[in-house]
Design brief:
Elements lengths: L2 H4 L44 E3 L3 E5 L3 E10 L5 E12 L2 E13 L4 E10 L5 E5 L7
Antiparallel strand pairs: 1-3, 2-3, 3-6, 4-5, 4-7, 5-6
Length: about 140
């Protein structure tokens, strides 16, 4: 499986992230979830590479429906590969849509465009997007 389908590359201490798996549409209600939290045997650097996700705008694709589009900037000195963007649309505390996007390569100091398609309807919702760095050293 693609690594972003089974985990998150990095999550700083005290931070939170809503991880999205948009590959399976479930029926019914989830009964439980298991997560293994811990540090990599190599350890994380003192300072993580900074990735800035620009404000999304919603666009309608005639085939795939609504998508969030915007820019993502690599503020670090490291090339980022297979950078996954996790998007969640909320109305109040309720999740109304979620999706993932990916940028194959984002060179150090560069900006690229992203596009994220949703399961659910993000119209009128607050969209949160996270893009944890994949290359830490």
């Amino acid at each position: 499986l693609e690594p972003s389908l089974v985990g998150v590359p990095v999550l700083p201490a005290g931070a939170s992230l809503t991880w999205v798996n948009d590959q399976v549409l479930g029926e019914g209600k989830a009964k439980s979830v298991k997560a293994k939290v811990g540090k990599d045997s190599g350890g994380a650097p003192a300072k993580l590479p900074r990735i800035d996700v620009g404000r999304p705008s919603l666009k309608r694709d005639p085939t795939s429906g609504l998508a969030a589009e915007g820019t993502i900037t690599n503020r670090s000195d490291l090339l980022q590969r297979e950078l996954t963007l996790f998007a969640v649309a909320r109305k109040g505390r309720r999740v109304v849509a979620a999706g993932r996007g990916q940028v194959e390569r984002l060179k150090a100091g560069k900006t690229a465009r992203y596009q994220i398609f949703f399961i659910g309807n993000p119209s009128g919702a607050r969209i949160e997007i996270a893009a944890p760095p994949t290359n830490l050293k």
